[in-house]
Amino acid sequence: MNILFICSRNQWRSPTAETIYKNVAGIAAKSAGTSSSARIRVNESLLLWADIVFVMENKHKDILQLQFPSAMQNRQIVVMHIPDEYQYMDEELVEMIQDVVHPYIT
Known about the structure:
Blueprint: E1 2-7, H1 13-21, E2 28-33, H2 44-49, E3 52-55, H3 58-67, H4 69-72, E4 76-79, H5 91-105
Parallel strand pairs: 1-2, 1-3, 3-4
């Protein structure tokens, strides 16, 4: 299963999620951001690669649907409702990510 995590700048939230799942058997995980200043910017090929796209906030889903309408057709997208107030690998952030993702990967 290929899972893609999206936040704004690909600095704290989505890289944390990628780190959590990148070494889980049967899962390939990547992360990207929607901002022009993102460490890794989301693109159509990343979206097409993903079986499931997890976005941190509704605004990320809106941006993806606006910028990549064809790639987002029939794509499973899950809004995680995680605000941008955590640092990389923050314990609370890790727990929130796992709580949302777990039902989709088991």
